Amino acid sequence: MDASVKDFVRAQREEPPPRAIARISRMIAQLEGEPPSRARESGFAWLFLALAEAALRAGKVREGERAWLTGYSYARTARDSEAFAWALALEEVRSLARNTRVAQRRKHRR
């Protein structure tokens, strides 16, 4: 996996979620132009997982869920154990965000 993608992802964790989402989305679009390879799939894994994390930080649970599932799938396809481990770590964050969203809906219905 290209170290520059990992460095980019790490840098986005420090950015406000809306800015990180925009930058990561642009990077994903750039990577789509690359020829298929294991490195490209790994790059997609890292970028979609970063997008999931940023979306969840922004309270965009559905977008975070979709990005997480895509990143998880790419991590498995690329056999990138480091990205796969991050996906599993984000699973806990996803669960918390999902449960919080469900609790908020229930509270508003009453």
- In total, how many beta strands? 0
Round the mean pLDDT to the nearest integer and report it: 89
* Helix/sheet category: mainly alpha
Using the alpha-carbon principal axes, give the shape: globular
Radius of gyration: 14 Å
- Beta-strand percentage range: under 5%
User: What is the CA-CA span between the terminal residues?
Assistant: 49 Å
Order of helices and strands: HHHHH
Number of domain units? 1
Biggest sheet details: none
Residue windows where pLDDT falls under 50 for at least 5 positions = none
Number of helices: 5
Helical percentage? over 70%
Written account of the structure:
The chain is mainly α and 110 residues long. The chain has one domain. It has 5 helices and no strands. Helix 2 runs antiparallel to helix 3, helix 3 runs antiparallel to helix 4 and helix 3 packs parallel to helix 5. It is globular.
Write the layout of secondary structure elements.
Elements: H1 3-12, H2 17-32, H3 38-57, H4 61-78, H5 81-109
Task: Give the tags.
mainly alpha; 5 helices; globular; 110 residues
Question: Care to give the gist of this entry?
Answer:
The chain is mainly alpha-helical. It contains five helices and no strands.
